[in-house]
Design brief:
Blueprint (H helix, E strand, L loop, with lengths): L1 E6 L7 H14 L4 E5 L5 E4 L2 E4 H10 L5 H4 L6 H8 L6 H12 L5 E5 L14 H8 L2 E7 L5 H12 L3 E9 L4 H14 L4 E6 L2 H4 L1 E2 H7 L3 E4 L7 E2 L1 E4 L4 H9 L4 E6 L3 H7 L4 E7 L6 H10 L3 E4 L3 H9 L10 H14 L2 H8 L2
Parallel strand pairs: 1-5, 1-6, 2-5, 6-7, 7-8, 12-13, 13-14, 14-15
Antiparallel strand pairs: 3-4, 9-11, 10-15
Length: 353
């Protein structure tokens, strides 16, 4: 078995999506693959065991015969934090290494997912530096594109991994910069001895969140059209303008949530004439009855929240593009993108399998 370590130095770079997309494609080719998230952050109770919710979803998508707790051997909880600060022996690194050893005989590839930065998990012995050093695992850098400084992280990971460095993926690239990266940045990295296996454009759908997640994040109540809570919202707009300007503003942005005051019925009506996935009404808990009837007829959920518009926007802004992976449609889209944009043949050749 070959462990492949997906590493980044920033949160929400897309490591889990890329790992799942790769795993699904390789499984389709007949390879025995599995996954392990080293630092779980989304506790989820299943059969009296605490595992990471994202890891649990990936386990179900892969239809894995590996025990689900192997996908998420460690999850941050208050209990773990207390034990750490009380200096109780946790032996988390030992357990992870034992699990990896147990998996060796039955797998071709194990995708390991690092923490959000090189040093996350250092106090537990499961940071990127320790994992690379102790396991000598093949290391794949997953880097979002934020300009030329993004190159520094890739070069840094290459230096840290040394002879175990496999290559890089450039992810969440603005579409208008895609050709620039392919024609300029990729050749530059190649001259530095870095194989770039894929350049992935930023994808609105993969960055989207569900109406259900928006309902949770604003601590709101659902007024109508509960059957559309699993619809995907790709954009959001604030309805704070004059009605005369609103329609042209709303027409420019598809698949959106519109956030506006509960009393702005004029804005709400105009929003529902365009591609709107839900209304989020702020500053009160009672939507206008006429608005509710229109929303029901158009199949548009209405969320009400006691938050003011500024606070609601702030909360939503903080989660767009940062939702955990737990929707089948996104997993299948990841598989499709990896099949198209990731050089799987070159990847397998580098792994020598």
């Amino acid at each position: 078995m070959l462990p492949v370590f997906l590493v980044s130095n920033k949160a929400f770079t897309g490591k889990n999506l890329i790992a799942l997309g790769l795993a699904l494609n390789l499984k389709e080719r007949g390879y025995k693959v599995s996954y392990m998230k080293l630092i779980g952050k989304f506790p989820y109770k299943k059969n009296n065991k605490i595992i990471d919710e994202e890891a649990y979803f990936i386990h179900s998508m892969l239809k894995s015969e590996v025990p689900v707790e192997y996908f998420s051997p460690f999850v941050w909880t208050y209990e773990v934090q207390y034990k750490l600060f009380e200096e109780e022996p946790l032996n988390i690194d030992k357990r992870i290494f034992e699990i990896i050893e147990n998996l060796k005989k039955n797998l071709d590839i194990l995708f390991l997912i690092s923490g959000d930065t090189y040093f996350e998990g250092y106090s537990l012995g499961i940071d990127s530096l320790n994992i690379i050093k102790k396991l000598k695992t093949k290391t794949l850098a997953i880097q979002i594109w934020e300009g030329e400084t993004s190159i520094d992280d890739i070069l840094g990971i290459k230096d840290i991994a040394g002879e175990n460095f496999l290559g890089a993926v450039l992810n969440k690239v603005p579409p208008e910069q895609y050709l620039y990266l392919k024609e300029t940045v990729v050749p530059y990295l190649s001259n530095k001895g870095i194989k770039v296996f894929g350049v992935f454009k930023k994808d609105k759908f993969l960055e989207s969140v569900t109406v259900r997640r928006l309902l949770e994040i604003v601590n709101g109540g659902i007024v109508c059209v509960e059957d559309k809570l699993d619809e995907f919202v790709e954009n959001y707009l604030v309805g704070a303008m004059d009605p005369g300007q609103a329609l042209s503003y709303f027409l420019k942005v598809p698949n959106k949530a519109v956030i506006t005051g509960v009393h702005r019925t004029d804005i709400q009506i105009l929003a529902m004439e365009t591609s709107t996935k839900c209304l989020i009404l702020t500053g009160g808990l009672h939507a206008d009855e006429n608005i509710v009837n229109i929303a029901k007829n158009k199949g548009i959920p209405i969320i009400v929240t006691s938050l003011n518009t500024f606070d609601a926007v702030d909360k939503i802004q903080n989660i767009m593009g940062k939702a955990i992976l737990k929707e089948k449609d996104k997993a299948l889209k990841a598989k499709e993108i990896v099949a198209k944009e990731f050089n799987i043949e070159s990847f397998l050749k580098e792994l020598n399998i």
